[in-house]
């Protein structure tokens, strides 16, 4: 029943999207700078959908790179070549799409003077998105993968095993196995994809090997972690893999006495912030907006959100000042500014 309702919702949109893709020769799909499994899977699925209506060559690009070991394993399994956006000539493509992010979101590198033709996302709408030829923004969905699964179903496309496996992993990863920001549509997509997916590969991706540096970052994350009331936060300093910020925020939220977790780190002249909450009535996205202030960009969902603040290049003082501000704002907005903070672990 739920599946049928979702399908009916997607049908008119699907026809329009297929119309936009019809007859295109070259498609560029832009992802977040540091793509997560949901973005990677959605891109693979959109490529499949485009192929079903057009003899189109698809290029997938992002402004940064695929950092997390699990995500690298997923990309390898899908046989995708995720290119650097800076090295592709955007105007040479006759169709431009964005999945799991939007123009103006601040987490992708597409210049605002080149609007995508297609935007499919589950984050709150950004105003430039309204000016695109085709957009589908479903804020209440747990993942963009769920939306792409509905499109493939409506278009009657037979989903190849690797794409089904990736979509399933994308849904699980964005919803933390349905523990956060998930709705019935996500569960329906999961159930429909499960028989086709490759379970052995899913297990392998989840246990992907990590570089030694991973443990080093983990150690400093725990050593720097501090608690105040039901809040916990840590600062990773300068990092080489920006995906660690979200991963550490997830880890800290597992603390039984914590309701709010925040992790920040400096990467490539930007201060990255990740917030997680177990308080289902709260809005992590709104908190991130207040934390990054006017200097930064950010957003997300009720349980998870991220943001970024550009730093003054090569100014170590600015890094320290901004990090301090971010931590202060986090604690102040959660009413813990007056509390003394404690180290999470004894060093
Ligand atoms: Mn997503």
Global morphology: globular
Determine the number of helices (DSSP H or I, runs of at least 4 residues): 11
- The neighbouring-strand order within the major sheet is 11-12-10-9-8-7-13
Unreliable runs: none
Number of β-strand runs? 13
Report on the structure:
The chain has a seven-stranded mixed β-sheet with strand order 11-12-10-9-8-7-13, with helices on both faces. It is of the alpha/beta class and 347 residues long. Strand 2 (57-62), helix 3 and strand 3 (82-84) form a beta-alpha-beta unit. It folds into two domains: 2-206, inorganic pyrophosphatase (n-terminal core) (Alpha-Beta Complex), CATH 3.90.1640.10; 214-343, Diaminopimelate Epimerase, Chain A, domain 1, CATH 3.10.310. It is built from eleven helices and 13 strands. Helices cover 40% and strands 19% of the residues. The structure holds manganese (II) ion (MN).
């Amino acid at each position: 029943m739920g599946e049928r309702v979702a399908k009916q919702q997607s049908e008119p949109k699907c026809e329009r999207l297929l119309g936009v893709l019809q007859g295109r020769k070259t498609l560029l799909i832009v992802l977040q700078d540091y793509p997560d499994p949901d973005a990677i899977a959605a891109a693979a699925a959109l490529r499949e959908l485009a192929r079903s209506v057009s003899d189109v060559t698809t290029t997938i690009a992002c402004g940064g790179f695929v950092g997390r070991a699990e995500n690298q394993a997923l990309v390898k399994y899908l046989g995708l070549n995720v290119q650097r956006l800076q090295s592709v000539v955007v105007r040479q493509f006759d169709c431009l799409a964005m999945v799991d992010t939007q123009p103006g979101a601040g987490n992708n590198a597409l210049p605002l003077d080149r609007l995508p033709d297609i935007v499919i996302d589950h984050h709150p709408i950004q105003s430039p998105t309204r000016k695109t030829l085709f957009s589908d923004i479903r804020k209440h969905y747990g993942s963009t993968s769920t939306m792409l699964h509905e499109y493939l179903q409506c278009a009657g496309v037979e989903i190849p095993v690797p794409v089904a496996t990736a979509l399933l992993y994308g849904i699980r990863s964005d919803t933390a196995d349905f523990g956060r920001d998930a709705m019935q549509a996500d569960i329906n997509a999961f159930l429909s994809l499960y028989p086709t997916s490759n379970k052995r590969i899913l297990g392998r991706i989840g246990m992907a090997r990590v570089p030694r540096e991973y443990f080093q970052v983990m150690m400093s994350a725990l050593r720097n972690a501090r608690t105040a009331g039901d809040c916990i936060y840590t600062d990773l300093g300068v990092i080489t893999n920006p995906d660690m910020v979200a991963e550490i925020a997830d880890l800290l939220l597992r603390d039984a006495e914590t309701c709010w977790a925040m992790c920040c780190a400096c990467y490539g002249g930007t201060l990255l912030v990740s917030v997680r909450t177990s308080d289902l009535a709260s809005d992590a996205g709104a908190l991130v907006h207040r934390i990054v202030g006017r200097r930064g960009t950010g957003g997300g969902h009720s349980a998870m959100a991220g943001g970024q603040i550009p730093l003054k290049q090569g100014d170590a003082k600015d890094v320290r000042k901004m990090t301090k501000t971010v931590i202060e704002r986090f604690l102040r907005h959660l009413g813990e500014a007056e509390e003394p903070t404690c180290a999470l672990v004894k060093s």
